[in-house]
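Sequence in, structure out.
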Amino acid sequence: MKPKNEFIKHFHRDWQLHLFMLLPVIYLLVFAYYPMYGVQIAFKNFQSAHGIFGSRWIGFRHFQTFFNSYQFGRVVSNTVIISLYTLAASFPLSIIFALLLNAVRNRNFKKSVQTITYIPHFISIAVVVGMLNRFFDPINGAYGTVYKLIYDIMPGAILGKADTFRHFYVWSDIWQHLGWNSIIYIAALSSVNPELYEAAEIDGASRFKCVVHVDLPAILPTAAMLLILNFGSIMSVGYEKTLLMQTSLNLEASEVISTYVYKVGLMASGNFSFATAIGLFNSVINCIILLLVNKTANKLSDGEYGLF
């Protein structure tokens, strides 16, 4: 049978699945691929009056401006540090939380803990930052009240310090998304054959050894895949929370690529070409890191844990 006829046969047989696939394909075409048409303004001196085609080509001038800017080292280092800090703290904690929750035998307690830890994920980022500001307010917040009771003096504005910004950003993010990030690991653990636990217990394995020798290997492929994907966005720190927590006092530690792009592209100068060039640089670096990490994972695991 010819490949074309075979494709038509499979398409006709599974037309419902192809219909379901049509919506995400349209979404990707409209919101992911079509916007790439505008990436060319990174190499132009874009003028809205002239449009994309009418604007003058200037090559890599915007990239050179960014690389030579005094902001380059600061925004790149801040972005990488916050991303690595978040990954190093949240990634293992999500796995540990899923393993601990899976080891709980009381179903009602397990469901209650899952529900409580999932709820913060659905809280708006603006609300989370507002909660941080209220809780750590040096005058009326719980932090200020307890500090005054212990030391009998008013504390300083702890959220406004540059050396504490990263800690508040990362650990508030972990509090908000720990339960949600553990869902995929809990789903992987639910597919483990119960006979493996029975065989381990017969061999005299404790509950901890069951976790180490049964649960952990079961989620290792999933963890490796998610780790590779997380490294693919190492240069991407969301600007919403960073911008809401940002002050003039902690700007040294809180200015990241996304907030810098927002400021130069929309707020101050409205330099869309310069902002697009920075965003393109960010995407290219993320893609390179993703390929390198995936290649490394393939070599270390003989192709078992790589994405492609």
